[in-house]
Amino acid sequence: MNTDIEAFGRVSAQPASDAETRVGKWRASRDDWFFSAMAFLMLGMVFLGFARTYYLAGVYHAHVRSVLIAVHGAVFTAWLLLLVVQTALVARRHIAIHRNFGILGAFLAIAMLGLGVAAATDSLSRGFAPPGFPFDPLSFYAVPILNILVFATLTAAALWMRSNGPAHKRLVLLATISLMGPAINRWPFAFVARSHNFTNMTIDLLVIFVASFDIWALRRVHRATLQGGLFLMVLLHASIPIGITPAWRAFAEFAVHQWQKLI
Question: What distance in Å separates the CA atoms of residue 70 and residue 80, rounded to the nearest whole number?
Fold first, then answer.
């Protein structure tokens, strides 16, 4: 989510012409609108999925399952709100504040990793698998764990490339897209429960949307989008084949046994 030289026009020994300045401003505005819209879109997707069981639990007389889930939801919500704030800060060229908030983002990402693994393992211990999933909870455990692996990898890459604005903001966006599965699974529409492929297809569509923006804006798919998007999609679709292997099921049984000893 860092700014980038490319967005404002490259530094040159010669002063930029009025036309070059206008083009630079248009490119910056174009990126600002897209990344801000994506941040709001994902915030809305998550609210839609968890409104009844988390955000509006009191209205629907629902009960948040545990303190762990409540904290996990709060930290994830903070990440999404920070994404919205960070895109707004870049749009308004408050780059110093944006970088300071980036430190908070790094700590939130670390917290999300630990809480995500804990929440997934707790769900496994309770025998959870979403409606329509064709295998048992031991196999489903591969889905959240591999999603967390994707998030961790893309977020680490984004931090490493924070001085490269175009790559950094795309990697942060893809990392957040990788976590959309649980919210999409809980959308209150019957067709979602009937098809276990709907969630994966929706995430694929979000990645394709980012790549399509690149083609429109850059006349090519940005390297970060290409590599990060392929990594996300490959592991997303490999989660079930991995989850049904004897090795993974043995690992899941070990994980849930250790979790039950802790609690």
Answer: 16
Q: How many domains does the chain have?
A: 1
**C-alpha distances out from residue 66 to 32, 46, 118, 122, Å:** 38, 19, 12, 10
In angstroms, the CA 177 to CA 181 distance is: 8
Rg of the Cα atoms in the chain: 20
- Residues 70, 64: contact at Cβ < 8 Å? yes
Is 228 in contact with 171 (CB distance < 8 Å)? yes
The pTM assigned to this predicted structure is 0.87
Total residues belonging to the chain: 263
pLDDT digits (tens, 9 = 90+) for 98-121: 999 999 999 999 999 999 999 999
Locus of tokens 């990440």? 79
Domain that holds residue 114: 5-262
* Selection from 62, 191, 206, 51 nearest residue 132 by Cα: 191
Contacts of 7-15 spanning 24+ positions with Cβ under 8 A:
7/31, 7/165, 7/166
The contacts of residue 44 (CB under 8 Å, 6+ apart) are: none
- Name the amino acid, one letter, at 115: L
Q: Could you tell me which of 88, 206, 82 has the C-alpha nearest to residue 155? A: 82
* Dist. CA 55–CA 74, nearest whole Å: 10
